[in-house]
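Case study.
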Amino acid sequence: MSRLTDCIGTGEYEVRPRSAVPGWLLAVVAAAALHGCGPGGTGDGSGTAIDATPVMVTADAQTRATASFARAYPKLTFDQPIALVRRPGDGSRWYVGEKTGRIRWFVDSPDASTSTLALDISSRVVNPETFDERGFLGVAFHPKFAQNGKIYVNYVTSRPERSRISEFASNDGGDSFDPASERILMEVNQPASNHNGGNLAFGPDGYLYAGFGDGGAADDYYQNGQRMTTVLGKMIRIDPDTRTGKAQYGIPGDNPFADNPVCRATANRSTACPEIWASGMRNPWRWNFDLETGDLWVGDVMQDNYEEINLITKGANYGWPIRQGTHCFPTGSTGCRTAGLTDPVAELLRDEGGASIIAGYVYRGSQTPELNGRLIFTDAGSGIIGSVHRDAQGNFVRELLNTNADYRVSYVSFGEAADGEMYAVSLRNGTIHKLILGVSSDGGTKTALTPATPVSG
Ligand SMILES: [Ca+2]
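After joint prediction, the assembly is written out as follows.
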């Protein structure tokens, strides 16, 4: 048993490492400091319905794929990369978000050796040490970027410490972004350094989604998970192209609480925030839309024992801090409320390597058809790789594809290439890695492929 008490404001964690996993402590501390600590997922961009009580199958003995991360673009390293995105409809280059407050791009070629600085707002970002959940945390291109040149970023400011969602504009098609073009859409006070969420993505509906953690500390100390008068502990959905009232964004008319006045960073209010798409999250750090189905898959970083993969539907409540995974919280308690709460479709236990779940994309590539339609995930604390998919009966099946992955690397975010292949960034090493897949028929989860290029350090 290993116990991790994550999400303390200082980013310090108490861990009792498993002797069989050298380095666990370091890896978990690193991971938890960044994402650790956060529950829930929310929001479904497509309206795809799922059962309120998912049926979960966690293991089977069928032929399974194994997976590993192989170093890609070996001539390139970045400064604490946390995002890997593309311009809509363009596979010619990657953009890398760095936690220190910069965006760089490079030509998508295996031997790429240089990257170009496109935006530097590091002076506006709270000092982001490597093992700190604050910093520059997310970036998303407007779906009509080719026409309007706009991107959106999510970062944590200092004095006061707030999460900020801003728009920046490019006048040269994305070669650079003007730091003076910043339009602040939203700011949210952050009572503690951890659980900031940080991801941004446009749904197939054209709206901008964001995830916020519960405000930090531990045990939902600030009681935001179930509090509907704050966007903390929520998935939100806004329209950056319109304005509602005095807000710098619009409220989509079909949001669950669309008729309520917009939320403000510090305002006391009695009605649910109209920005909310789903609630009951702890720290929805990484999540993505399945471009084929529109499903929104959210990895919600949990506290003690059960990391969550959630499939988000409009208005659903994902339970934090009443539930953790498919269990009552606090761990070991019984008889908790379940009515009106939606459990995750899959969970990753602490003893399996769950510390800071990192949801990737639903694989839609062609190089490994046996993984088609599977949500790929990893964990920043253990490097474990797994997938979730629906079987023929509609049950959700979680499979662990690699339990021997390199826990030292701290993969914190995925990127989806134009051809559907999947990549991940290493916060710790500053490197980019491609998900390499193979097939094993041994039914065991301990057989892993050796990365094509060993990871150093
Ligand atoms: Ca939950």
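Observations recorded in class. The CA atoms of residues 40 and 269 lie 23 Å apart. Residues 39-40, 280, 300, 308, 318-320, 323, 344 surround calcium ion (CB under 6 Å). We will return to this complex in the next lecture.
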